UniProtKB/TrEMBL annotation:
Biological process (GO), any one: nucleosome organization
Family matches, as InterPro entries: Helicase_C-like, P-loop_NTPase, SNF2/RAD54-like_C
Any one cellular-component term (Gene Ontology): nucleus
Source taxon at top rank: Eukaryota
Organism: Kalanchoe fedtschenkoi (Lavender scallops)
Keywords: Hydrolase, Nucleus
Source taxonomy: Eukaryota, Viridiplantae, Streptophyta, Embryophyta, Tracheophyta
A single GO molecular function term of this UniProt record: chromatin binding
Protein name as annotated: Helicase C-terminal domain-containing protein
Length: 251
């Protein structure tokens, strides 16, 4: 109730200003959904709520960290979870669609004293490689790796992490699956735990249901097509590759 009372007017105003852009007398529904997803993540994604409530954000103290955490239900849960995971020597990958949300999470990590690396679409190739090497290095002090869902795709191997947190789901469930696979790589020796944050009774629940339906449809298609890999069939290569003697005879 405290959060709702403080931020309600500011968030409603921000949504009206940022989302209800009239183009040819039509409201952009996509923009409205994006703004609602911001509400689910953190009010500081709205500039008016950020500076209006947080005061001078250059002034770092314990009360600022407390305000940052208590302003978002997701961050309250994340904070409790990360404290426990660090105590039990786990390492974590955190994915978000929103670069600005990664900024907030990075600030939270710094205030909490958690060592972390970060990768998003603006990260240069050389820095991406350095960040991965630093995180995967034996004895690394890095506890978390912050990644944007789509930037953390191909070529990313973070098998030294054993926990994946999807802070906000992607529009396409396949992108989330690809993000989860960053920890499921060659060399992974631990059980990988995956947590997905979804705000109850919000637009996120609707998107999650749509994603489940889409994945069920894809699963049905693959079952009908009867796709399989060579790893599932031990005789695959013997049926398609000729014995060495036969090859020599033809040559």
């Amino acid at each position: 109730m405290f959060f709702f009372g403080v931020f309600k007017d500011g968030l409603y105003s921000a949504i009206e200003i940022e989302a209800f852009t009239v183009v040819n007398m039509k409201v952009s529904l996509l923009n409205i959904v994006v703004e609602l997803k911001k509400c689910c993540n953190h009010p500081f994604l709205f500039e008016s709520a950020d500076y209006g409530y947080g005061g001078d954000r250059a002034f770092i103290d314990s009360s600022k960290l407390e305000r940052m955490i208590l302003s978002s239900g997701k961050l309250v849960i994340l904070d409790k979870l990360l404290v426990r995971l660090q105590e039990t020597n786990h390492r974590v990958l955190i994915f978000s669609q929103m670069v600005r949300m990664l900024d907030i999470l990075a600030e939270y990590m710094s205030l909490r004293g958690f060592q972390f690396q970060r990768l998003d679409g603006s990260t240069k190739a050389e820095l991406r490689h350095q960040a991965m090497e630093h995180f995967n290095a034996p004895g690394s002090d890095d506890f978390c790796f912050l990644l944007s869902t789509r930037a953390g795709g191909l070529g990313i191997n973070l098998a030294t992490a054993d926990t994946v947190i999807i802070f906000d789901s992607d529009w396409n469930p396949l992108n989330d699956l690809q993000a989860m696979s960053r920890a499921h790589r060659i060399g992974q020796q631990d059980v990988v735990n995956i947590c997905r944050f979804v705000t109850s009774k919000s637009v996120e629940e609707d998107f999650l249901e749509r994603a489940k339906k889409k994945m069920n449809e894809l699963s049905a298609i693959f079952k009908v097509a009867n796709f399989y890999s060579a790893e599932d069939d031990g005789s695959f290569w013997s049926r398609w590759i000729k014995p060495e003697a036969a090859i020599d005879a033809e040559v």
